[in-house]
């Protein structure tokens, strides 16, 4: 108990006028707290209630009967004090209800960013893309590329009936017979050279190679189709990647070592076949667009990248 409170108890036991003055003073302070609820409201109210209890305990029962105005002032102080406690409770609930943890975190982050000794860098989430995708079963997406997949109209070919002369014709052995294993070996060698060509261009120029510039043969439409199929096999096996650049053109680049290793480990399950088609009209348009002097896939002569 403070010295001020002890003085109150001594003086109040000898002077009814001073007791009334103290009651009026505490009633005024309590009304001020009623109008302005703040951080120190509870502490101030606790002190006022302790002082009024001291005054009330020092009064005799006869004094309370003779001085009813003191009892009235005491009851007013109690009433206003209870209203102050009610307002404190409402203020506490009102301050706690709108709490939002997301808003609170954003305010802390904004405060830290404004500090002169703090430097924050953006999180490099794309670094984790390859690792996270390994844990997800991603469904492959299919889309048309530059309209080259536009199907042609199917022509109905009537089957020719076999006549009696066709049955009697003796079979002749073809004059030029080429071994199948030699053909397959030639295709594999061509595909390997195409992969080497794309890899060399990527290492030398540090950028992907234009797809149509790679496959286009300006003097032979059949070679163009053949080159397209060879590149398609490399893309299917995961050795090359077919993408679009910023201008929307198809480009080809070698796959990374990690992608090649994953393709070999998964086998045929991870293969993606790019089925493409091109007709003579489209081939003619591509020739006029690219103005190529010669075919890039021409391993009989030196290739200039």
From TrEMBL:
Q: Name one GO biological process term.
A: DNA repair
Keyword Membrane belongs to the record: no
Is DNA damage among the key words of this record? yes
Primary location: nucleus
Annotated TM spans: none
- What are the UniProt keywords, alphabetically? DNA damage, DNA recombination, DNA repair, Nucleus
State any GO CC term: nucleus
Q: Which Pfam families does the record cross-reference, listed alphabetically?
A: Nse4_C
Q: Where in the cell is it found?
A: Nucleus
Say which domain of life the source belongs to: Eukaryota
- Tell me where in this chain the Non-structural maintenance of chromosome element 4 C-terminal domain is found: 208-297
Q: Which family does it belong to?
A: Belongs to the NSE4 family.
Note the PANTHER family from the entry.
NON-STRUCTURAL MAINTENANCE OF CHROMOSOMES ELEMENT 4
The record's note on quaternary structure and interaction partners says: Component of the SMC5-SMC6 complex.
Q: What does this protein do?
A: Component of the SMC5-SMC6 complex, that promotes sister chromatid alignment after DNA damage and facilitates double-stranded DNA breaks (DSBs) repair via homologous recombination between sister chromatids.
Q: What is this protein called?
A: Non-structural maintenance of chromosomes element 4
Q: Which organism is it from?
A: Neodiprion lecontei (Redheaded pine sawfly)
The major lineage groups are: Eukaryota, Metazoa, Ecdysozoa, Arthropoda, Hexapoda
Q: Which gene encodes it?
A: LOC107225384
């Amino acid at each position: 108990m403070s010295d001020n409170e002890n003085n109150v108890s001594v003086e109040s036991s000898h002077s009814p006028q001073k007791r009334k003055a103290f009651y009026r003073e505490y009633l005024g302070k309590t009304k001020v707290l009623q109008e302005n609820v703040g951080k120190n409201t509870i502490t101030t109210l606790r002190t006022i209630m302790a002082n009024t209890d001291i005054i009330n305990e020092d009064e005799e029962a006869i004094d309370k009967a003779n001085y009813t105005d003191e009892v009235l002032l005491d009851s007013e102080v109690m009433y206003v004090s209870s209203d102050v406690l009610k307002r404190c409770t409402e203020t506490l609930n009102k301050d706690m209800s709108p709490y939002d943890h997301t808003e609170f975190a954003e305010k802390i982050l904004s405060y830290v960013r404004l500090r002169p000794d703090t430097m924050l860098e953006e999180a490099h989430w794309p670094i984790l893309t390859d690792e996270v995708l390994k844990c997800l079963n991603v469904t492959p997406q299919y889309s048309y590329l530059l309209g080259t997949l536009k199907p042609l109209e199917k022509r109905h070919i009537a089957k020719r009936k076999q006549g009696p002369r066709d049955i009697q014709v003796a079979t002749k052995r073809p004059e030029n017979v080429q071994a199948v294993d030699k053909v397959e070996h030639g295709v594999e060698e061509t595909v390997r050279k195409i992969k080497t060509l794309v890899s060399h261009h990527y290492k030398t120029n540090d950028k992907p190679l234009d797809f149509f510039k790679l496959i286009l043969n300006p003097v032979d439409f059949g070679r163009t189709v053949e080159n397209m199929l060879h590149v398609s096999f490399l893309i299917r096996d995961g050795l090359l990647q077919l993408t679009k650049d910023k201008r929307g053109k198809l480009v080809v680049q070698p796959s990374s070592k990690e992608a090649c290793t994953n393709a070999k480990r998964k086998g045929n399950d991870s293969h993606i076949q790019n089925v493409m088609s091109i007709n003579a009209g489209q081939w003619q348009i591509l020739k006029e667009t690219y103005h190529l002097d010669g075919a890039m896939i021409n391993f009989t002569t030196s290739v200039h990248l």
